[in-house]
């Protein structure tokens, strides 16, 4: 049985999520703030964390950033703020999805199922090869990207997106294809999520950002110039 950690200072929100999660067959642990969430994550493993952003003691963004130092557990952020800046910040610190309040509990559970499914597939089917281009090196099995020997830190979703594009080097990838392959057919967001991650990915790649070519009206292509 998969175990979820639900982190929210509102009792009502925790109980709604717990009710639907247990109906889906998940075991649920609760935390009322970021500090408690970090301590729980140090003591035990979870298959996914649902983390509210605005909480006392320690906010969700800070808690997510701290947890990422010692765990790669998938994290879905919850927030009443839906501005692009907040979503970008959430992705930058390592969250896997971002859900704006008020939300549909059924949709949230579908997102939870999708993220856990993708996470399990990624962990069980690692690629065992390395791609190199000049000073850029991509180790698929170790999930490590380096530029001129220096490791490049990326969010989990950046890794997935970049690895897929590199493995399909030279191929025009439509926006729909990228979303379906990286986020899954059951993705509930919009195409701006893809654009946000491409923007973050280019920032991470520095001089090699030019390898990601925008195909206007179509999508993107990774190519070695």
From TrEMBL:
<feature type="domain" description="Response regulatory">
    <location>
        <begin position="3"/>
        <end position="116"/>
    </location>
</feature>
<dbReference type="InterPro" id="IPR039420">
    <property type="entry name" value="WalR-like"/>
</dbReference>
<dbReference type="Pfam" id="PF00486">
    <property type="entry name" value="Trans_reg_C"/>
</dbReference>
<comment type="function">
    <text>May play the central regulatory role in sporulation. It may be an element of the effector pathway responsible for the activation of sporulation genes in response to nutritional stress. Spo0A may act in concert with spo0H (a sigma factor) to control the expression of some genes that are critical to the sporulation process.</text>
</comment>
<keyword id="KW-0597">Phosphoprotein</keyword>
<dbReference type="Pfam" id="PF00072">
    <property type="entry name" value="Response_reg"/>
</dbReference>
<keyword id="KW-0902">Two-component regulatory system</keyword>
<dbReference type="InterPro" id="IPR001867">
    <property type="entry name" value="OmpR/PhoB-type_DNA-bd"/>
</dbReference>
<feature type="modified residue" description="4-aspartylphosphate">
    <location>
        <position position="52"/>
    </location>
</feature>
<feature type="DNA-binding region" description="OmpR/PhoB-type">
    <location>
        <begin position="128"/>
        <end position="224"/>
    </location>
</feature>
<feature type="domain" description="OmpR/PhoB-type">
    <location>
        <begin position="128"/>
        <end position="224"/>
    </location>
</feature>
<dbReference type="InterPro" id="IPR016032">
    <property type="entry name" value="Sig_transdc_resp-reg_C-effctor"/>
</dbReference>
<dbReference type="InterPro" id="IPR036388">
    <property type="entry name" value="WH-like_DNA-bd_sf"/>
</dbReference>
<protein>
    <recommendedName>
        <fullName>Stage 0 sporulation protein A homolog</fullName>
    </recommendedName>
</protein>
<keyword id="KW-0805">Transcription regulation</keyword>
<dbReference type="InterPro" id="IPR011006">
    <property type="entry name" value="CheY-like_superfamily"/>
</dbReference>
<keyword id="KW-0238">DNA-binding</keyword>
<keyword id="KW-0804">Transcription</keyword>
<dbReference type="InterPro" id="IPR001789">
    <property type="entry name" value="Sig_transdc_resp-reg_receiver"/>
</dbReference>
């Amino acid at each position: 049985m998969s175990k979820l950690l639900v982190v929210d200072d509102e009792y009502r929100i925790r109980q709604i999520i717990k009710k639907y999660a247990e109906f889906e067959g998940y075991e649920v642990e609760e935390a009322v703030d970021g500090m408690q969430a970090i301590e729980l994550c140090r003591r035990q493993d979870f298959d996914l964390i649902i983390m509210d952003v605005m909480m006392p003691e320690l906010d969700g963004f800070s808690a997510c950033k701290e947890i990422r130092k010692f765990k790669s557990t998938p994290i879905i952020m919850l927030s009443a703020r839906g501005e692009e800046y907040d979503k970008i910040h959430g992705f930058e610190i390592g969250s896997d999805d971002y859900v704006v309040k008020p939300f549909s509990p059924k949709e949230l559970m579908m997102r939870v199922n999708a993220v856990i499914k993708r996470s399990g597939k990624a962990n069980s089917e690692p690629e065992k090869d390395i791609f190199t281009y000049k000073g850029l090196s991509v180790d698929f099995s170790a999930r490590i990207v380096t530029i001129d020997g220096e490791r490049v830190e990326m969010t989990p979703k950046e890794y997935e997106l970049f690895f897929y594009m590199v493995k399909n080097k030279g191929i025009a990838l439509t926006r729909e294809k990228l979303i379906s392959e990286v986020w899954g057919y059951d993705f509930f967001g919009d195409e701006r999520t893809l654009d946000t991650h491409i923007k973050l990915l280019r920032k991470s790649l520095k001089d090699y950002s030019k390898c990601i070519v925008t195909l206007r009206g179509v999508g993107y292509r990774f190519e070695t110039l």
